[in-house]
């Protein structure tokens, strides 16, 4: 039984070490991304909108079109569609 625990223990240590290394890499990448957003902001770009653009680019075209259609339907139901002035007709 000690042999099984030793083998499993070593494998577990390897998994933990790999996960820790990847977490460090993830933190470094997050810091790099934060710097890029700060640079974009420094150049006059709206980072909130930039984050939305990044999120939307991850969605496939058909899904995005469906979301846009539903959003337009909801806005129209609330009297907020583009033809409305001040959110009311």
From TrEMBL:
InterPro entries: GapR-like, GapR-like_DNA-bd. Residues 9-79 form the GapR-like DNA-binding domain. It comes from the Bacteria. Keywords: Coiled coil. The keyword RNA-binding does not apply. Residues 5-39 form a coiled coil. GO terms for molecular function: DNA binding. Belongs to the UPF0335 family. This is UPF0335 protein DKG74_16835. It comes from Zavarzinia aquatilis.
């Amino acid at each position: 039984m000690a042999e099984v625990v030793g083998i499993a223990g070593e494998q577990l240590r390897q998994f933990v070490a790999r996960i820790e290394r990847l977490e460090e890499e993830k933190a470094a990448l997050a810091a790099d991304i934060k710097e890029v957003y700060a640079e974009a902001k420094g150049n006059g770009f709206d980072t909130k909108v930039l984050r939305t653009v990044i999120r939307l680019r991850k969605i496939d075209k058909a899904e995005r079109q469906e979301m846009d259609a539903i959003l337009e339907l909801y806005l129209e139901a609330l009297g907020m569609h583009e033809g409305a002035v001040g959110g009311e007709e």
